[in-house]
Every structure is written in C-alpha cells, then in structure tokens.
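Hi everyone, sorry if this is the wrong subforum. Our group has a chain we'd like a structural model of before ordering constructs, and none of us has done structure prediction before. Sequence below.
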Amino acid sequence: MAGEIIDTPARERPLLLLVEDDAGVRRSLQLLFRARGFDVRAYAMGNALLADPLARDACCFVADYRLEEIDGIEVLSRLRDSGWSGPAVLITAFPSADLSARALAHGFSQVLEKPFREHALGDAVARLTGA
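Answer:
Right subforum, don't worry. Here is the predicted structure as tokens:
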C-alpha cells in the first residue's frame, strides 16, 4: 500500500551494544539508535554487557568512559579478547588528549565529548557500520 510505513522487526536489524550508566542518557541513545534502524542492547554496567552471550553478535559498540565497575576502555578490551572485532565509539564527559590516545590505542574508532549533538553520534555509528 502506498505510503505505508513498514517497521523492520528487531531481529532483522543490526545489533548495537550500548553501555551508559546514566539512565536518562542510556534511554535517549536507545531511542536514537532504534530510530536509525538498530536493535539496541543497553546496559548500565560493563560487566553486564560482557556476561551477555548475544554481545558477540553486535555490529558496533558505544560506551561511556566512566562506569562503576570497569571503564569503557576495559569493556572494549575484554570484548576484543573474546574475539569481537567490530567498530566502537567512546563517549565521555571527561575528555583529554591522553584519554583519546588510550581509547584509540585500545581499538576505539572515535571518541566523542559529552555533551554532543545526537546526530554526531548517530552519524558516526552509521559511517562505521555502513548502515
């Protein structure tokens, strides 16, 4: 039917991992990525993400730097150790040249400073995943 909106079922969408300890930011980013066509698995803590067996199926990983248990860089390091090789974006409210260098050295494709315009993160993920 002309003009009909067809929503792709979540299982057919590329899986994106998100770890962000601020519930409001996490929910906002979930909505952003879902609107861009991703299935989003969101976590408040890095260890919860690492315990999820579906995490290895993700096409991209977005992480806050400062988290309660382990930081976003350590989460990516552990994902890499488990064989995951997708692109990753680090978001942080505590930017520094040292942090950016560490993040890039550990496999992040990009570091974005909070607050950021939502389209900047969405565009970065789309570019990295080809979505």
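For your construct planning: The longest helix spans residues 23-35. The chain has one domain: 11-129.
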